[in-house]
Structures are given as structure tokens and as C-alpha cells.
């Protein structure tokens, strides 16, 4: 598909004065795409030129369209000397390349110069005409949609989730080329910006090709990163999850979306069913189970995950709860076997998603992570970045094997990162081992709806907690109990994950941000020695970070961590570890025990007194926290046969680290036989550890914080949001660099930063800081830089809902991917699954039976329906569409209208979350991925380092907003600042900063506005937001 | 451990009104922190002094960056760098251009030049307003003056359009600009009892009636902008005022005028005898002010003269304000009955404004 790119330069405003004599500017514009350049006329003597140019037309390959940015340069004409550049605008035209996104880019763009910052604005209109030319061997992947959002985007439905895609491109860093010695800093910066823009375009195109190969049409959870390896080059790498997405509830929008790839795709899984064998083996297992009063085995002919159903049905048929767990073993094995084969064809069964369609996530094993220390060498042949690829492949293999060890066949919430210092690089990968429902992985049309019903039979809110691994053959010494929710399955006593809290999870009380912070000094060393030193330190860091997390979790009286992100940063002379997660109390998991303190010298009276004092303090803190986070689980009677376990700390964290030598070591983070809740105070270090536990101050009242998408336990968000970035750099005094001083400094830095945020945002109380994302870097010997991006969202205190209601509501929202009648199921199920609900098996059976029979019959009906559709081929998709189209927006009626509906024209909201409270995303316009460099040689004049960086970040926000507005959007969701590299040289009065941000440009509408629209035009039109009749007020 | 860098950037720029006020008042970060501590904010929020310091620094930096835009408020509205809700933008602008009564009284009517700027030190010491704040206020006056100086059309409208100020503040600026342009003396000791409001009131009346813009049209007609200059007094009008001399120079006319006023006011005025005794002096004073207005020097001394020639004599005789009003009304109206006097319109244009001014100026 070659295309024609058309650009029109309309006007400029607020240009800088370039001619001191006249205080005016003679501006003209160069428009460049690929190797073609056009120029406008000079508009003399004006700071607000009106060029009103003709349409500049570029005829280009779609490959170039994807790779190249449109480059607009504003210059000042000078008759006698060279023309002076005022600044540039780079426009990524990718959003214009797929049909559903933006059709035109038009608006005011800040004119950016890497030395002077923003210098006025320029009004540009860009359009693309694509010619249809189906070339089988094409190198482009136009039409594949990209989303940064790590869940299925709100106005789409996942037909199939194909899985992991990754790609990496390398190049020489222009900053380190010989030519850099003779060119100006501006030229060098621009070369870098342009190169990275090109590389990310290329990367995106290549990933797109892989997606098309997998017969997908979109990448969700797209994460692109830069590794500035210095001398050895520049690596741009990306990971994501390939999916086939359907646009929701808009028949009009569906048809054009039905381009050949997506239609084809739905057929294929049917024709080439990847695992017929597992299906035939399916019925055999449940048949052993004589107590079944019905036989769902018929369905097994197609249902690969039906064993799941059996698990959940077992108790209802009157089987003893004790045996259920034992039965679970083989079932699980079966399930594993089945889904494994579904995932087998994939090299890496990884998913970058952190939130999933209902029923997708079956069980969660725990966090898996792998790290590797590498020595960087020059990349000799940029076209074959084999070493970097091999490094990552190695790490991913490890992750895969860890997941396997946990009895899981997949890894969700997967992410990768690097930390580079000089020539040493730590590669890290982490995710959550999980068992997935294979239906989304193959085909998810009618079958999807069918299984959805069955899925609802699973005890809602605890299924994912049940252990996926074999009880008798546990990968690590864990202590299991029966699930406190359903009492049927085994659960671990704590659960660590990297994903968001599943929306159907039953949580007691509210959650909170939990951080573990750690520094370790390291000797300065060169090359191999340095890498070895780091490798040796890593296991200790991981161990300590983990211990800290565990202790802090206990101190909060909680039993699970979500969104866990452990960042290890390497510096010249130290290593920093920062782990952030959101702690919650899962109703399904046992109540955490307290923390015991034991002294080593029991005879010393005063010492003992001190110990008991500490113990009291800790107990008080736990009690206080329970009150603060409203954790009051029902006092559960003990279940026969499942003794409340001895509190014991163990690890869900399988990790490994390896050096260049490929040596893999596994670390058991559990404390073995030792009762790990006991903190032994045997030296001053241990004492300080305990003290530091207690120094974490809870946020002031009215404030909550978490690093997940939403705060567990809060759901009445109002529409006011404030996204922010805060950066702090501290200089350590080199005199007293001990591990402890360092730890204290780092701890204080983070705590003070949080305190500052709470203070700054106090006008928003009651509010919650969501998606709090800390990044640590060590730019120099004695400097620690912490960057935080988060969003503060206000919520309505008075409107606080009952947990039950909220829960139902949430499920309803979740259920939006299913057809309407199904909406009712979560309702009843949720009320059943309330923690306080007693669970006498007999009663449960009688209550549920009728509805179950109901479901059973409709289930068979659906199978019939499906059988028909298979015969009739493509009709199948139509059925799905009909089923899904009226659905979804049922959630309106449950949410209260946002109080203030008037969004002022021109305001662009930014948020790291995938949604906007009180609003509905109606359209995704494309991915925003921007890279900026800013440099100054007059640092003092620009207000020092703080002034410089403050202005730069404000400018970056402005440029993101301008691009979104030009695409016709009014918000960026899933916004992330992936990199903020800041370097200064105060002696030379210089500083430089590189920032990389990304997100999804969207159009949103306030829910209250939508209601108005829908009452005016009740007929379902192509407006996805207002399907008739659904919206009731 | 020292903080090298410490910033907070919101997608919506955070504006703390209290800190903005401290910044506008010209306090250093240290002083502002101390003042905030004293306000009890630490106790209210449980924050530490370090947090307050960091917060204050941050706001100051933001304000400093916004200041460039505040110099041309329309720019603040159209810029893309700081996303600020319109209501906050309005607040930022309004507060930035607000000024202290004490300061404006010092500067009012002075030439807005470098020379005056040098005196800001003294003004700062005298008024207790920080030098920084004095500078900002002075620069605001000067900036507004420069922008509207050469403009046609209504002074208030011009100010409002180019600085996006509220109506009230725009009127004040119009007065300041008008006074600066005509260099009216306001600093004399005998004028100290007058407030800025008094002068602004007079300025508005004078702009409406005595400037070029007021000629030949109703003062409220906004359409006609031909030669509409609100800044300068109508030279022709000032020249014509000489014609009024006859009212006091012609003894018959003066006596007739006096008898008309006395007849009308007899029994109505508490201070009738004083009025009767002083009539000629007062009338001479008011008319002489008018006739002298052709000289720049006398224009500048307008307020001094009014106070000396009219306000003070009346005040020493303890005229109540109601009596002053009755007198002035009758005094201006009676001229219409003077057959030999031909400049009725001129008299009305002069006396109408002057009466308003005098009534405003007549207080303790």
C-alpha cells in the first residue's frame, strides 16, 4: 500500500524575535519526509506569519510511512548569512495509517528546539491517502493497531489473544560518532532525535509484521524502551501482546474493520484445531467421578478448558470438601496439559497485559523474575543484533522455566528492563506465572460466550488464588490452607503478583502502596571484575528486598501484593533496589500473622524491656494499619482438616541471575525451617531494620496510594484527575558512605518525596494516588535520582458504597464483553462469594441448582448453535457481533453521572491509567511515542538544574498534549515516562536531558454527556457509546 | 544529603493562592516559608518544614516561569506549555496586576520613567512594601502605559482587551495611565488625605468629559473611535476655558451670579452666611482654576488648586457635604440665568465634571 502524504502549513504564532534590529522575524518552513523537502514562501517581518501554503504532496512507500517521521523545520530567512533555525516539529503519522484511528492531523504544534525549548507554535494539517495494493511480500504492517494500555482497550473486544511479540533494533548512537566532535550540540541532538524516531518507527513496523504473521490485528501492552549503551550503541526494543480485536457495539465501525486479515483469522483456528488430542482425553477424567449427577462430557468434544468447570462444579455435587483438593491435583494436571499444548506452539507464552477479560486468568502462581549481568561490547553489525537478541532470549527462557516450576504454562504482567552503567548492563525480566483459560488463545467467538457462563460457576473472587502447582510436589516450601472463600481449594498464605488486582477479586478493606528500598555499596571495578561483583551482590539484594516487602506487608496486616515491580539500578559504586507494589487483603487468603521480635541476649533485663517495647510498637502499628485500611475480615471458624498454618515466610519469587558465563543459580528465598515472622535482633543492623520498618509514615488522612490502576476498595471516583511527574536528585556526602547511611538516605528521599506529593495535592482530598511509578537512576557517583509519575484522582467520600454493591458494579462493568443476559450472573455470584457468607455445602447446592440446570441447558443450546455456525462458516462472526453489539454499556446505569460535565475546549487530560474516571473512551486515535532531548549551555540563567528540568518536563507535556489535540483527541491514557536521563555539568554551566514518553491518544466523553446524546437519538448508530435503550437514568 | 534538584510538574499547573500572594508580595523563599509556618499550615497538614520549603520553591519556580507570560496576558491564554483552567488564569492575571493602595498613592501622577524607578527604594522603605513588589507594580503601570499610550478608543476597553483585567481593575489602570500621562500632582501634603479611589473617580469623570474622546459625542457611544484619545485632555477645550474668566472678571456678572445663588439657597443652607461671605472667593477660585488650565504646570496642580481654593475654605467653615452639594448644584445651574454669559455649554462641560470631583474630594 503506497500512499500519498499531504501536508499544509497554515500559520505560526508567538515566534521568537530573530532579528534584533526590527524585533521581528522573516519566517519560512521546510517540510521534509524521507529525502524530499518542500519549502514555503518567506513571510516577512512577522511573529505571527500566515503562510497558508499549498498542499505539499509526498508519494511514498508504506514502509517509509511507518518508519519516517514528518519533519517540519521553521527557519528565519537571512539575506546575507545562513538561515537560522527557529525549531522543529516531528510528527509521527502512524495514527493516520489505520482506518479506525485519526483521519487527519490538524492543529497547533509547539516549535521545539533542543537548545532553546519551545519557541512559538505552528499550525499544520496532515493527511494520508493510502492506495490499496495487496502485496503478499510487503514489508509494511499498516493497519496493525498499537496500544500502550496493558489491558484490552475499552472499546474493543478480544477475539483472540495470540501472545508475545518482541523486536529489537540497534544502531550507533550519533552522540558517539566521530562527526559529533565537529558538529554543534543542536545538530547532534537532532540527529539523535531523528534516529530514535526512525528506529521506533522501524521497530513498530517489524512488530506489526509479526502480528500479521500471527494473524492478529493489534498489539496491546506495547512497551518500547531505549537502551543508551553509550559507546557500544543505541538499542531500541519493544515487547507487546498480539491480539485480534473487534470494535465493540458499533456495527458500522465493524464492517470497515473487517478487512481481510481479521476475517480470515477467525476462521483459521477452527480449521486447524491445534490440539484435538487433548479434547479426546478430556472426558476420561471426569468420568471417574461417579457422583456427578449430570454429564457435561458431551461438551468436551470442543471445550478444552472444561476441566475447569468440573473443578468448580465438584462441590455442588455433594463431594466432601476434603477430597476436592486432592481431586484438584489430577484436574490441574489435565488443565495444564491442555492449555500447555495450546501454548506450546509459542516460543514464549508471555503476556504483557496486567488486566484481563473475565475468565482469562485461571490461577496465579507467583512472581517469576530473572536477571542477567552483561558486559556491553560494540555492536558491529547493526543489521543483525544477534547478541542482544540472544541475551533476551536467554532471560526469557529462564522466566519460562520458572513459570513451569510453579506449575504454570504462561507468564502474565510480563515486562523487561535494563540498567546500564558504563559497560555493565543488568537485564531484568519479570512477570507472574499463571494458568490461563485457553479459549482466548485460540478462538473466542461463540465458544467464548459459552464458556463465559461456565466460568461464572467458579467461585468468583478466589479462583485465581488457588495454587496451580501440585501440592505434593511444590516448587518451594510453601504453606497451604484451604481457600478462605470457597473452602475447597488450596491457597498459599501470601501471594505476590505483577498484575493488577483482578476486578472480581474479593478484597477486604483498602489497599496501600508498599515499597522496599535498599542500597548496597560496591567497589569500583572494571569490566569482568565489576560484572562479577554485581552478580554476587544481586542475590542478596533480591533476598533483602523480598524480606522487606514481606515484613511491610505483614505490618500492614495484608496478605497479597499486586503490581509488584522490582527495579535494580547499577551505579559506579553502588546498587539500588526499589520494589513497589500495592498491598491488599485478599479474602481468600489466610489472615497474616504478626511479627515477633526476638532478642539474642535474653538475660539482659533492660534489653529485654527494649525488645518488648519494640514488640508493642509493632503490634500497635499492625492494629493501627488494620484500622486505617479497614481490614476487618470475618472471624472464620477453622475448617476441619486444614489447620491454620504456622506462620512462615516463604517466597513466591523464583529468581535467578546469570553472568555472561551462562551460569544459572536459583535462590530459595524462603527462610527454611526458621520461623520467619520472627525478626531476630542480634546486632545493630537488625535493630535499624526494625526501626526502618516503623519509619514508613502512612499517608495523611484522606489520602491513599497504590501503584496499580485502581485502588482496591475505592470505586466512587469523581472526575477530577491530576497527573504529575516529580523528580528529585540528592547528592550524598561521600564521607559517610556506609550501607546503612545509604539506606537511610534513600529511604528518606523516597519518603520525603511521597510526603511532598501528599502536601502538594492536599487540595484534592479525599483522593488517591494511583499508578505511582518510581524510577531510580544513578547518574553519577554520588547522585541518586528518583522520578515519580502518578495520577491523583479524587473520590467521593460521602458516596461510599457497600462492598457488595461495589463488587456487583465492578463485575457488571467487567462483563461488558459478554452478552447482556450474562450480566445477571455475576450479580448473584458476587453476593454468594462475599466473605461473610457462610458456606454450608448443602445449602449452596440447593440454592444454585436450578440456575445451574438452566445454564446447563443453554449451554447445550449454545453448543448446537456453534455446531451450526461451523457448518455455515463465516456466519459465525456475525452471530457474535449481534450478540455483542447491544451489550456493554449497561454499566452506565450503575455509575453515577460525573458532577461536572463541562470540559473546556482544548484541555487534554493525561493519565497513566487505562481509563478516565467518570468518562467513557469512545475512540482510540493511535499511539503516542515521543523522544526529546534538551540541552543548555546557560544552566544558571535558566534557573539551575531545577528550573531547567521543570521547564523541559512542562514542555514535554505540552508537546504530547498538542499532538493529541491535533489528532482530534482530548486525553492520553496509559501515559508513561519511560526514560528521564538527566546529566549536568554545573562547572561548565551545562545540562542535558533525554525524555521518552508514550501513551494512547483517545477521545473520551463524560458519561453525563453521553446520556444526553443517547436520549436525543435513541437509535443505535455508529456512536459506540450510545446503543439505544441501554442508558437509563 | 543535599537536594540537588527537586521539581514537581503537573499536567494541570498547580497554583497555590497563598504562595502566589507571598510571591507577589515579594517575599523571598525563606521568608515565605517562615510566614507559611506561622500560618499554622504544618499543624493542619502534618507536613515538615522541609516539605514546605520544597513546595514553596516549586511554586516560586512556576510563578517565575509564568511571569514572562503574565506580562502579556493574552499569551497566557494561548500558550500551550502550562495547562491552566480559565478561572485560574483569570486569577493569576488579576492578582498579578493588582496593586497596593499605599504604593499607588506614591506613584500616582508621576512620570513612569527610570528616575521614578530609582525612587522605589524610598517608597519601599516608606510604605513597608517589599522592593520586589514595588518593582512589579511599577513595571505593571509602565507596561500598561506603554501599550495603551498610542491607542485609539476607550482607555478602559484598551486596557481590558490587552491585559484581560476585570472591569474594576481596568478602570483603575485607566486612571493610573491618565494621571501618569497628565502628571497630576497628588503627593503634596495637603492632598495626603485623598485616597486612590478619590483620584480614580475624578480621572474617570475627566476622561469622560474633558478628553478628546469626549468631544462631539455622548460619552457612552463606543462606536465612534475617530480621534478618540482618552489619554490627553482636549487642548481646545482648555483654551476655551479662558472664556469663563468673565464670570469673575465682570463685577456685575459676579454679583448677579451671587445674588441668584443666595436667593435660591436662602434658608436651605446651614452655612448660608459663611457661603454668602465667601461666595466671591470660592467662585474666583473655581473659575481661575479653569482659566489657568492652558498651562501644563497648572494642569498638574489641578488637585492642589481645587483643595486649596475650594475644599479647604469650606472645610474650615465646617460645611457639611450636603450643603456643599446644594451649593455646587445651584452655583452651576445659576449660570444659565446669567443673560450676558454666552458659554453655557462650555460651562457645563467644565462644571459638570468639576462638581463631581469636588464632591468626591470633599471629605476629611
UniProtKB/TrEMBL annotation, chain A:
What PANTHER family does the record point to? C2 DOMAIN-CONTAINING PROTEIN 5
Which protein are we looking at?
C2 domain-containing protein 5 isoform X37
Compositional bias per record (Polar residues), positions renumbered to this chain: 274-289
Which is a Pfam family this sequence falls into?
YbjQ_4
Name the source's superkingdom.
Eukaryota
In this protein, which residues make up the domain named C2? 1-109
Which residues fall in a compositionally biased region of kind Low complexity? 290-318
Quote the InterPro entries the UniProt record gives: C2_C2CD5, C2_dom, C2_domain_sf, C2CD5, C2CD5_C, C2CD5_YbjQ-like_dom, C2CD5_YbjQ-rel_dom
User: Gly residues composition bias: which ranges?
Assistant: 319-328
Kindly give the CDD domains that the UniProt entry links to this protein: C2_KIAA0528-like
Its ancestry begins with: Eukaryota, Metazoa, Chordata, Craniata, Vertebrata
Ranges for the region named Disordered are 265-330, 639-667
UniProtKB/TrEMBL annotation, chain B:
Q: Which InterPro entries match?
A: FIBP
- Domain of life, source organism: Eukaryota
Query: Cross-referenced Pfam families, in alphabetical order?
Result: FIBP (PF05427)
Q: What is this protein called?
A: Acidic fibroblast growth factor intracellular-binding protein isoform X1
Q: Which organism is it from?
A: Equus przewalskii
Amino acid at each position: 500500500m503506497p500512499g500519498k502524504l499531504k501536508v499544509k502549513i497554515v500559520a505560526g504564532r508567538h515566534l521568537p524575535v530573530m532579528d534584533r534590529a526590527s524585533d521581528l522575524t522573516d519566517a519560512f518552513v521546510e517540510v521534509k519526509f524521507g529525502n524530499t523537502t518542500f519549502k514555503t514562501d518567506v513571510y516577512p517581518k512577522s511573529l505571527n506569519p500566515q503562510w497558508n501554503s499549498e498542499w505539499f504532496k509526498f508519494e511514498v512507500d508504506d514502509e517509509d510511512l511507518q518508519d519516517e517521521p514528518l519533519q517540519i523545520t521553521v527557519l528565519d530567512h537571512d539575506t546575507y548569512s545562513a538561515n537560522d533555525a527557529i525549531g522543529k516539529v516531528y510528527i509521527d503519522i502512524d495514527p493516520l495509517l489505520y482506518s479506525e484511528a485519526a483521519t487527519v492531523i490538524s492543529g497547533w504544534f509547539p516549535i521545539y528546539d533542543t537548545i532553546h525549548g519551545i519557541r512559538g507554535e505552528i499550525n499544520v494539517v496532515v493527511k494520508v491517502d493510502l492506495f490499496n495494493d495487496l502485496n503478499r511480500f510487503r514489508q509494511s504492517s499498516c493497519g496493525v493497531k498499537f496500544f500502550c494500555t496493558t489491558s484490552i482497550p475499552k472499546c474493543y473486544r478480544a477475539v483472540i489473544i495470540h501472545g508475545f511479540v518482541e523486536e529489537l533494533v540497534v544502531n550507533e548512537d550519533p552522540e558517539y560518532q566521530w562527526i559529533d566532535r565537529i558538529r554543534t550540540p543542536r545538530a547532534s541532538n537532532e540527529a539523535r532525535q531523528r534516529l530514535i524516531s526512525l528506529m521506533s518507527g522501524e521497530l513498530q513496523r517489524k512488530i506489526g509484521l509479526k502480528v500479521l504473521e500471527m494473524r492478529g490485528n493489534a498489539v496491546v501492552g506495547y512497551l518500547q524502551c531505549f537502551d543508551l549503551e553509550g559507546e557500544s550503541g543505541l538499542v531500541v526494543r519493544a515487547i507487546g501482546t498480539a491480539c485480534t480485536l473487534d470494535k465493540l457495539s458499533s456495527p458500522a465501525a465493524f464492517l470497515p474493520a473487517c478487512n481481510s486479515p481479521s476475517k480470515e483469522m477467525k476462521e483459521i483456528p477452527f480449521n486447524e484445531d491445534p490440539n484435538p488430542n487433548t479434547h479426546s482425553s478430556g472426558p476420561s477424567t471426569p468420568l471417574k467421578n461417579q457422583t456427578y449427577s449430570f454429564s457435561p462430557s458431551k461438551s468436551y468434544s470442543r471445550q478444552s478448558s472444561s476441566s475447569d468447570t468440573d473443578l468448580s462444579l465438584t462441590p455442588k455435587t455433594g463431594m466432601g470438601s476434603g477430597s476436592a483438593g486432592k481431586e484438584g491435583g489430577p484436574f490441574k494436571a489435565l488443565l495444564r496439559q491442555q492449555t500447555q499444548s495450546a501454548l506450546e506452539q509459542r516460543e514464549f507464552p508471555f503476556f504483557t497485559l496486567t488486566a484481563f477479560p473475565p475468565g482469562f486468568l485461571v490461577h496465579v502462581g507467583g512472581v517469576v523474575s530473572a536477571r542477567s549481568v552483561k558486559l556491553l561490547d560494540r555492536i558491529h553489525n547493526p543489521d543483525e543484533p544477534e547478541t542482544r537478541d540472544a541475551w533476551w532470549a536467554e532471560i526469557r527462557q529462564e522466566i519460562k522455566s520458572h513459570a513451569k516450576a510453579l506449575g504454570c504454562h504462561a507468564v502474565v504482567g510480563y515486562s523487561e528492563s535494563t540498567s546500564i552503567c558504563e559497560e555493565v548492563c543488568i537485564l531484568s525480566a519479570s512477570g507472574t506465572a499463571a494458568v490461563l483459560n485457553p479459549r482466548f488463545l485460540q478462538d473466542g467467538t461463540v465458544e467464548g460466550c459459552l464458556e463465559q457462563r461456565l466460568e461464572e460457576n467458579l467461585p468468583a473472587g478466589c479462583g485465581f488464588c488457588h495454587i496451580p502447582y501440585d501440592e505434593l510436589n511444590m516448587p518451594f516450601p510453601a504453606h497451604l490452607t484451604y481457600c478462605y472463600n470457597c473452602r475447597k481449594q488450596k491457597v498459599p498464605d501470601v501471594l505476590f503478583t505483577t498484575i493488577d488486582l483482578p476486578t472480581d477479586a474479593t478484597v477486604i478493606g483498602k489497599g496501600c502502596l508498599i515499597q522496599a528500598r535498599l542500597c548496597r555499596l560496591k567497589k569500583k571495578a572494571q569490566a569482568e571484575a565489576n560484572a562479577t561483583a554485581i552478580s554476587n551482590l544481586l542475590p542478596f539484594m533480591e533476598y533483602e528486598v523480598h524480606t522487606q516487602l514481606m515484613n511491610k506487608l505483614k505490618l500492614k496486616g495484608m496478605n497479597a501484593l499486586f503490581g509488584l515491580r522490582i527495579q535494580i539500578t547499577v551505579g559506579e559504586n553502588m546498587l539500588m533496589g526499589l520494589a513497589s507494589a500495592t498491598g491488599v487483603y485478599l479474602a481468600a487468603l489466610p489472615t497474616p500473622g504478626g511479627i515477633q521480635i526476638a532478642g539474642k541476649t535474653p538475660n539482659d533485663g533492660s534489653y529485654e524491656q527494649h525488645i518488648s517495647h519494640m514488640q508493642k510498637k509493632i503490634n500497635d502499628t499492625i492494629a493501627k494499619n488494620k484500622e486505617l485500611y479497614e481490614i476487618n475480615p470475618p472471624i472464620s471458624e477453622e475448617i476441619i482438616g486444614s489447620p491454620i498454618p504456622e506462620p512462615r515466610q516463604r517466597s513466591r519469587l523464583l529468581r535467578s541471575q546469570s553472568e555472561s558465563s551462562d551460569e544459572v543459580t536459583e535462590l530459595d528465598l524462603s527462610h527454611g525451617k526458621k520461623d520467619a515472622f520472627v525478626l531476630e535482633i542480634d546486632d545493630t543492623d537488625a535493630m535499624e531494620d526494625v526501626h526502618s520498618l516503623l519509619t514508613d509514615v502512612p499517608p495523611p488522612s484522606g489520602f491513599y496510594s497504590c501503584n496499580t490502576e485502581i485502588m482496591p476498595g475505592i470505586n466512587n471516583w469523581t472526575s477530577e484527575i491530576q497527573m504529575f511527574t516529580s523528580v528529585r536528585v540528592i547528592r550524598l556526602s561521600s564521607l559517610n558512605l556506609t550501607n546503612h547511611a545509604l539506606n537511610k538516605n534513600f529511604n528518606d528521599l523516597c519518603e520525603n518525596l511521597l510526603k511532598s506529593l501528599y502536601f502538594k495535592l492536599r487540595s484534592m482530598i479525599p483522593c488517591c494516588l494511583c499508578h505511582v511509578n518510581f524510577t531510580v537512576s544513578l547518574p553519577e557517583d554520588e547522585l541518586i535520582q528518583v522520578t515519580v509519575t502518578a495520577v491523583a484522582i479524587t473520590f467521593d467520600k460521602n458516596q461510599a458504597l457497600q462492598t457488595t454493591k461495589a463488587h456487583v458494579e465492578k463485575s457488571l462493568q467487567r462483563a461488558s464483553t459478554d452478552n447482556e443476559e450474562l450480566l445477571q450472573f455475576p450479580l448473584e455470584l458476587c453476593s454468594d462469594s462475599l466473605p461473610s457468607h457462610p458456606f454450608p455445602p448443602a445449602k449452596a447446592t440447593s440454592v444454585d441448582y436450578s440456575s445451574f440446570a438452566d445454564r446447563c441447558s443453554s449451554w447445550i443450546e449454545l453448543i448446537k448453535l456453534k455446531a451450526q455456525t461451523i457448518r455455515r462458516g463465516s456466519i459465525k462472526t456475525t452471530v457474535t457481533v449481534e450478540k455483542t453489539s447491544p451489550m456493554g454499556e449497561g454499566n452506565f446505569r450503575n455509575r453515577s453521572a460525573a458532577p461536572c460535565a463541562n470540559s473546556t475546549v482544548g484541555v487534554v487530560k493525561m493519565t497513566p491509567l487505562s481509563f478516565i474516571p467518570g468518562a467513557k473512551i469512545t475512540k482510540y486515535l493511535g499511539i503516542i511515542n515521543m523522544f526529546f532531548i534538551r540541552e543548555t549551555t546557560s544552566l544558571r540563567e535558566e534557573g539551575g538544574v531545577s528550573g531547567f528540568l521543570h521547564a523541559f518536563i512542562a514542555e514535554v507535556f505540552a508537546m504530547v498534549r498538542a499532538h493529541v489535540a491535533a489528532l482530534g483527541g482530548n486525553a492520553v491514557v496509559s501515559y508513561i515516562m519511560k526514560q528521564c536521563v538527566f546529566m549536568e555539568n554545573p562547572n561548565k554551566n551545562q545540562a542535558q536531558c533525554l525524555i521518552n514518553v508514550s501513551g494512547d491518544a483517545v477521545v473520551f466523553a463524560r458519561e453525563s454527556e453521553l446520556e444526553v446524546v443517547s436520549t436525543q437519538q435513541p437509535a443505535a448508530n455508529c456512536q459506540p457509546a450510545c446503543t439505544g435503550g441501554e442508558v437509563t437514568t | 544529603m543535599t537536594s540537588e534538584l527537586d521539581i514537581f510538574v503537573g499536567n494541570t499547573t498547580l497554583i497555590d493562592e497563598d504562595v502566589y500572594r507571598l510571591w507577589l508580595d515579594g517575599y523571598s523563599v525563606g521568608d515565605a516559608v517562615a510566614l507559611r509556618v506561622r500560618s499554622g499550615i504544618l499543624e493542619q497538614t502534618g507536613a515538615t518544614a522541609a516539605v514546605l520549603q520544597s513546595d514553596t520553591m516549586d511554586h516560586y519556580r512556576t510563578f517565575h516561569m509564568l511571569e514572562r507570560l503574565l506580562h502579556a496576558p493574552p499569551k497566557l491564554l494561548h500558550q500551550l506549555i502550562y495547562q491552566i483552567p480559565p478561572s485560574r488564569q483569570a486569577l493569576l492575571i488579576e492578582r498579578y496586576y493588582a496593586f497596593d493602595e499605599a504604593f499607588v498613592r506614591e506613584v500616582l501622577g508621576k512620570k513612569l520613567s527610570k528616575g521614578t524607578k530609582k525612587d522605589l527604594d524610598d517608597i519601599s522603605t516608606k510604605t513597608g512594601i517589599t522592593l520586589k513588589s514595588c518593582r512589579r507594580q511599577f513595571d505593571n503601570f509602565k507596561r500598561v502605559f506603554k501599550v495603551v499610550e498610542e491607542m485609539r478608543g476607550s482607555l478602559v476597553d484598551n486596557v481590558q482587551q490587552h491585559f484581560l483585567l476585570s472591569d474594576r481593575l481596568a478602570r483603575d489602570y485607566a486612571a493610573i495611565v491618565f494621571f501618569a500621562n497628565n502628571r497630576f500632582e497628588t503627593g503634596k501634603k495637603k492632598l495626603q488625605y485623598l485616597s486612590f479611589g478619590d483620584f480614580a473617580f475624578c480621572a474617570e469623570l475627566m476622561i469622560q468629559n474633558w478628553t478628546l474622546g469626549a468631544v462631539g459625542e455622548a460619552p457612552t457611544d463606543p462606536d465612534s473611535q475617530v480621534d478618540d484619545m482618552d489619554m490627553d485632555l482636549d487642548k481646545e477645550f482648555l483654551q476655551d476655558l479662558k472664556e469663563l474668566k468673565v464670570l469673575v472678571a465682570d463685577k456685575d456678572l459676579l454679583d448677579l451670579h451671587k445674588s441668584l445663588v443666595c436667593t435660591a439657597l436662602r434658608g436651605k443652607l446651614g452655612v448660608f452666611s459663611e457661603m454668602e461671605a465667601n461666595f466671591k472667593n470660592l467662585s474666583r477660585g473655581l473659575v481661575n482654576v479653569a482659566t489657568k488650565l492652558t498651562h501644563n504646570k497648572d494642569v498638574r496642580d489641578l488637585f492642589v488648586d481645587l483643595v486649596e481654593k475650594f475644599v479647604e475654605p469650606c472645610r474650615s467653615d465646617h460645611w457639611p457635604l450636603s450643603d456643599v452639594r446644594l451649593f455646587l448644584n445651584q452655583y452651576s445651574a445659576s449660570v444659565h440665568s446669567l443673560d450676558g454669559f454666552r458659554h453655557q455649554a462650555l460651562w457645563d462641560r467644565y462644571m459638570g465634571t468639576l462638581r463631581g470631583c469636588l464632591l468626591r474630594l470633599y471629605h476629611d
